[in-house]
Amino acid sequence: MTAAADEGRLRVLGVVEGDDAGPVFLARWMRPGKADREVVVQLLDPGSLPADAVADRLADELPRLARLEEHGALVIERLLSVEGHRTLLRRHVPAVDLATVLSAEELAPGLALTIGARVARTLTAAHGLPGTGAMAHGALGLDKVLVTAEGEVWVTGLGVARARFAVEGAPPAADPEQVDPHAPPEGRSAGPTPAGDVHALGALVLAALDGALRGPPATSPSAHRARLDAALHPLARRLSGELSLLPDLLAVLMSYDPGQRPTAADCADALAALAEHAVGPSLADWAAEALPPLVASVGSAARRRAVEGEVFGLELPVGPPPGPAPQH
Fold first, then answer.
1. d(Cα 169, Cα 164) in Å, to the nearest integer?
2. Which of 142, 105, 181 is nearest to 305 (CA)?
3. Among 69, 85, 149, 240, which residue carries the largest CB count within 10 Å?
4. Hey, is 44 helix, strand or coil?
5. DSSP 312
6. pLDDT value, residue 295
7. Is residue 120 within 8 Å of residue 261, measured between CB atoms?
8. Domains (ranges, CATH) in the chain?
9. Against a cut of 0.90, is the pTM above it?
10. What is the pLDDT of residues 36-78, one digit of tens each?
11. Positions of E strands within 123-202
């Protein structure tokens, strides 16, 4: 099951789901000199092909996932048969990750709140996906949030999580690299959970407003609260009016006790309500002016990070619905 020269091998781990177009597979892409990574891909109308032939076809298609010459998210929506050849139908979304945005400029509170609300709506969808129960992201951060020049917000990294859940029938085991390092100890040991995503959302909004939790995670409720207060106090001094409620909201999102944190849906409503009181440009107006130069200037490393965050049709976009995907 060898792909193109030096593209490595593809190991099919299991069938995720399928429809009339064909099955969807979870697979591990093993490439020389690179870390293995899990991917999701669909084979169109495999018919009676044996498993090895299916894997060979997947290996042929998979290398295209890493060959996008422009920066942006690569959303694989399905496979089509074009003149007898199986090809990928994909939508290119020119975008820049939030970490890159913040390295270039500060975000006004209204923008950070609007982005946070849209991320929360994506988490709401993920936590309630049919057939998966409460599927958590588990690795939400500034690098997993992409913003387009049209003001769309995309959260990457959900597809492989959903596929792993479908194949194994249970959330993945705890992985130090896949959970929020600032979460309380019990949150880090239990593996990805919706409550852990809410904690990460609070940390993300705080970071978008130039704040951060300092030092190692606390090991007691009182120490955790002191750590939160130290992070939120500078923010509280900068905000006024209705926005002065934000530090208290973030404190609830990042509560030591996961049971005290709100749902992602409640977070989305609360963040959106506060954003309405902010002064400044809308997300769409700001993105149209600020992001085109950033998208054009990012280097190949950022380009690859954005591409590798996306998998077949299982990412959850937030904002205006995407238009028809171009054929490539």
1. 8
2. 142
3. 149
4. coil
5. B
6. 76
7. no
8. 9-94+301-318 (3.30.200), 96-161+168-297 (1.10.510.10)
9. no
10. 766 666 554 555 555 566 556 655 655 544 433 333 343 444 3
11. 145-148, 153-155
